[in-house]
Amino acid sequence: MEQRVSITTTSEATATKTAPHPALRWALWVSVVLALMLIVTFIAGRSGASGAPLDPDNPGPDGMQALAQVLSDQGVDVQVVRGVSSLPEESAQGATVMVSTTDFLSQDSGDDLLDYASAATSLVVLSPADNLREVIDVDVDTRSTTTPTAMSPECENTLWQAGDKVTDGDTLLEVDSTLERDEATICLPPSPGYNAGGARSGYLVEVDNTGAAPTTLAGLGASLTNANITNEANAATGLRLLGSNDRLIWVIPSIRDAGELPPTGLFDVLPAPLLPSIVLLLVALGVWALVRGRRLGPVTTEPLPVIIRAIETTASRGRLYREARDRPRALASLQLATRRRLASRLGLAATASPELVVTAVAGATGRHTDEINRLLVDTNVDDDDTLVQIARDLHSLEEGIPTT
Predict the structure, then answer these.
(1) What is the second-level CATH architecture of the domain 69-253?
(2) pLDDT above 80 (res 352)
(3) CB–CB of 314/11 below 8 Å?
């Protein structure tokens, strides 16, 4: 008996004619979607939308887009300035200058802001931070806190009307005793009679000794956000505070206003566009690799130029099993071949399960299924003598069932 052995290889001619692999098409679609996402992200970034708190372009709960839009609708020219270093060359004459917070302001940038606001009608400092004394040069301390209830004004000016109440103050302003009462007017105390004991604190303080225009310190940043602007008289307070003039210069401090800061890591000294550029290059490299990739064609069979006898293959495999002492695998090979031959003789499919073959053989020979299962299925073998004996028993079992 001879056996012709074949090997598998790939046909280069077939590979060039086959259609693109579905996985390659899927990868190309993913690349297109990623490219579209990058384009949309770039356009959104260029559109000016911001997610920073108290930003007039931020539509989120902590932004102030609603107030800025209403001011514009009321005819106020809202000029957004991002960074003190970007203040317009045009004078602030007749305008209201508002700085959204003092967090990023250094003493130098604070001096620049005061110099610019000296010609303005008023200066509004919204949500002052702990550096208020150094930035604005005013004897007022700040304390972050939240008003438990709605506040009623206790000062008389055009900001308020009868029955007005303000909610959601976030910064309590504590006036130093060095400031005379005519230099600092306190409005919006946390509760009625709060300053009766000598304390001088409130969520809105008007001061006149900053060297700039009349200055209003307002710890009402949270009150004027999109989430809280409709509560009580918050909207009316914001419109009167920032819309008293036809022009509003809305200053949003940037990290550059904090002065020279030493770098704390590698990314602090690298150009800002570097990381997005690296990501884009990696995406482009992945797309290029997918496009340039070649799919292997379908396998084809090629006969060997020599004929290998079946007995040689069997003997070689047996020697490998013997050298490896892999008796269970050798026995399993014998059992598989015997089961297939017996299944054919008993009218079963060649792929019939071992249990089905065992049952059929037991019925044909009248022997117990446990004995047949030990011969045809069980691969537990301890030594070579046992393996040889089971092989003989398999041969005897096969001879006992005649070919149909």
Answers:
(1) 3-Layer(aba) Sandwich (3.40)
(2) yes
(3) no
